[in-house]
Amino acid sequence: MTPGVKPLVAGNWKMNGTGAALGEVRAIVEGLSASGSAVADAMLCVPATLIGRAADAAGGAVLEIGGQDCHAKESGAHTGDVSAEMLRDAGASAVIVGHSERRTDHGETDATVRDKAAAAWRAGVTAIICVGETREQRENGEAERVTSAQLDGSIPDDMTAGNTVIAYEPVWAIGTGLVPSNDDIAAIHALIRDRMEARFGGEGRKVRILYGGSVKSGNAAEIFAIDNVDGGLIGGASLKAADFLAICDAVPD
Ligand SMILES: O=C(CO)COP(=O)(O)O
């Protein structure tokens, strides 16, 4: 954790969930309301088709709703794409940009991600900007270099701690059950913090840096206790309310 920074636990449902999954959203809202704890912010980034209904179910109080991608433009001839303004209109307060699955499946570059982050800010939603190395890059000793380069290239100049969240997600840890050692997480998060401070000063000191990749209820407390880890971006374990709530509970007081 970073002193004075409110942690965030954000779920990323990826391409999972139809209307039948709204019961999980309601159960998460009930669980968070019952616990009454305000130590962390909680968010679910659901498929675009669910944002409106999930936002209605969340009611805005204890659970924020986010999207998982946006187009850089506000509107126009871009069949199948969704703008940040549309996400906001549907009830999203944040959007993930530059997830490794987008970088890989859709060839998104740092420049693409930077434009999408700027689009999120234009629409008044928080950009959750993802960075992280592949297994091969980690094995070649390139984790620091790759993460730094992605960070430098994916964030527009007018970043603030309010309009942005950084998520470090080593690609090889996503959905694999593999997690870097605590020391390795600490090293990359310290590197990200240093670079953010060097470029953005006080805003970089306060910006939230999440860890993502195989976070479960069993390892969340240990990971959240690491310096400069200000919460998590949770994939598989955010799909079930009980798992997600247990991870929210793991945030230290
Ligand atoms: O990609 C992730 C979140 O964006 C992490 O996914 P898992 O938690 O399923 O490893």
From TrEMBL:
Compartments where found: Cytoplasm
Keywords: Cytoplasm, Gluconeogenesis, Glycolysis, Isomerase
Main location as per UniProt: cytoplasm
Binding positions (substrate): N12, W13, K14, G175, S214, G235, G236
Source organism superkingdom: Bacteria
Catalytic reactions of this protein: D-glyceraldehyde 3-phosphate = dihydroxyacetone phosphate; L-erythrulose 1-phosphate = D-erythrulose 4-phosphate
Record-level GO BP terms: gluconeogenesis; glyceraldehyde-3-phosphate biosynthetic process; glycerol catabolic process; glycolytic process
Single Gene Ontology MF annotation: triose-phosphate isomerase activity
Pathway named in the protein's UniProt entry: Carbohydrate degradation; glycolysis; D-glyceraldehyde 3-phosphate from glycerone phosphate: step 1/1; Carbohydrate metabolism; erythritol degradation; Carbohydrate biosynthesis; gluconeogenesis
Enzyme Commission number(s) from the entry: 5.3.1.1
Entry GO CC: cytosol
Catalytic residue list: H99 (electrophile), E169 (proton acceptor)
Gene3D superfamilies: Aldolase class I
Family membership noted in the UniProt record: Belongs to the triosephosphate isomerase family.
Subunit structure: Homodimer.
Role this protein plays: Involved in the gluconeogenesis. Catalyzes stereospecifically the conversion of dihydroxyacetone phosphate (DHAP) to D-glyceraldehyde-3-phosphate (G3P).
Name of this chain's protein: Triosephosphate isomerase
Species this chain originates from: Oricola cellulosilytica
Gene: tpiA
